[in-house]
Amino acid sequence: MQDGIDTESDLEQLTESGPGEAAMAVAGGLRGVAEWGRRSFRAAEIDVRLVGMLVALVTIWITFDILSGGTFLSPRNLWNLSVQTTIVAIMASGMVLIIVTRNIDLSVGSMLGAIGMFMALLQAEWLPEILGFDHALTWVITGVAGVILGALIGGFQGVIVAYGRIPSFIVTLGGLLVWRGVAWRLASGRTIAPMDTTFQLLGGGSRGTLGGTVSWIVGGVAAAAFVASMVLRRRQRAKWGFGLRPTWIEASLAVLGTAVILGTVAVINSYPMPVNLARAYADERGIAWPEGGLQIPLGIANPVIIAIVVTLIMSYVATRRRFGRYVFSIGGNPEAAELGGINSRWTIVKTFALMGVLVGVAAAVQIARLNAATSGLGTLAELYVIAAAVIGGTSLSGGVGTIPGAVLGALVMQSLQSGMVLLGVDAPIQDIVVGVVLVLAVGLDTIYRRRASR
Amino acid sequence: MTTETRTPLVEMKNIHVSFGGVHAVEDVTVDLHPGEVVALVGGNGAGKTTLIRTLSGAHPADSGEILINGEHATITNPRDAKHYGIETIYQTLALADNVDAPSNMFLGRELTNRWGSLDDAAMEDATRKVMGRLNPKFKNFKVPVMSLSGGQRQSVAIARAVHFNAKILIMDEPTAALGPAETAQVRDLIEQLRAEGIGIFLISHDIHDVFDLADRISVMLQGRLVGTVNKADVTKDEVLGMIIIGKKPGETTADEVQSFH
Q: A with B: how many residue pairs have Cβ under 8 Å apart?
């Protein structure tokens, strides 16, 4: 790579002569800065793509904030954004593994519909007949049943793909129709509502949040865990006598990470409960209602916590477990994986089953949030989920992808969508923008990879 | 050699492999003793790689029997082969290009800690140790192997085969991607492994390599075994005669020998 850059600049110097000298000096300076940046990133072992995505996200946020006159970056909108992102983020973390093995799952939106409808019926109609309404166990039974159903549907599709050798594109395209039909048949197109009161808390409605104090505690623990994991990793490397990152980079990363975590909590906590809710809250606890009203923070929403836990687990599974290593090896070279003694087919079944589990979790959050299930639940979700994974750096040719990238991708997609809603952009135009962004993201990715492989 | 009376380490008997009616390997019988290098030679499409893939578990034979230490062995996949102490360096190297050298070396046999998490540090350490022996100049332990040179990739593939204490080593064109210095290293390694009592099947198209390294030479032509000869008993021309026209030593005429050159 180093050589390539040098020759390139030499060539430019040869062809460009005379009047362009000042411009060349500037270009040279810029190139120097870029090179310095690249070296620092390499020293810090930071993924340049991830940083690029963060820059893209910040650009989108600032643009929408200016266009919306400061509404986009208000605590209220950011709080909503955090909740809206969860469903796509949860599913995208599983889609990464599917795409890494050179497969695709087009059925996740329809699966979300079918599983969501199943869970809605279970808690609103079937379980109450046995347990009575609002039984303490209803939400647990419903959630577990939904997740198991997801694993079964996903695993079933995975078996057809891996052992039946039918391309996943076709199997899950069929699934897209089948599960949508199932979602409709389950309740003959009816809308099922309301959900169990405890179950509703999974969706992060006004009561489904941690509250200000607990949010700060969670943020503090997360920051401490982040720093501790960095220290631990450094000790581990030192113990084996491997190279260490420069201390100043390590320290600034720790400070940056802590700042991001605590800053996020601060923003979330600066969104107070709406007046009527705050009033009810005060009445319940016998707090006197002052003249100017109460500023009680809602805190982090439950689905956000669910999404964070899910993506942390998925990240761990992808990078620190055998299963994850196999997934990436299969994506990099299926034959090598097989010759290495990896049971590729069973691994692929597991990725689809895991995807199903995550769809189950996402479906639970979705119906809890809407407090209802309709047969159209999750329509087009597959598009957002695949887009999030791909924008997040997952290569459609397999072998490459990260969970944190996919979460960022989900945040980008959701920011685009909710930004456009905020600006009052028509729904058809929104679809056009999302479609164009998806193609653009893959295009940029292809260019990036072509340059990286030179 | 005097090993003929002992039980061979590997016996492959009457192996048949066909692909859609085409006989890739037809009734081939070869064997291998501990501390011996048997070269498998033949032109393109002679069936060397196909034959050896039945031993490494990459593609099961249609019929025939494999004996390891005189006992019947069932090898239907690469895991079975590894179980018998058979390690293979494939001509294609069989590396997952998107992961780093330690991950490739331990592919399918990852080290884990007591919670079942991957122990990347231990794997990197082991890889550094093996590489220190095989290719001391190798330094890129944290980058995907796709960004390594051909020679470095080859050392990763060799390191993988050597690390797990193989009893039987299959090397399919192990020096094809290497420069002269690295080729010399591989030759030293083969000598060293032979001295340790490991049996090696060496597939090579380089007749000089074969004559330098092998104890016996099995020649294949169009899926059939032409014959197996002791290196000491034959000349290069005689082996070339076997490879090209399938005639055993002594059957080749002077004119035919001329036509090889």
A: 83
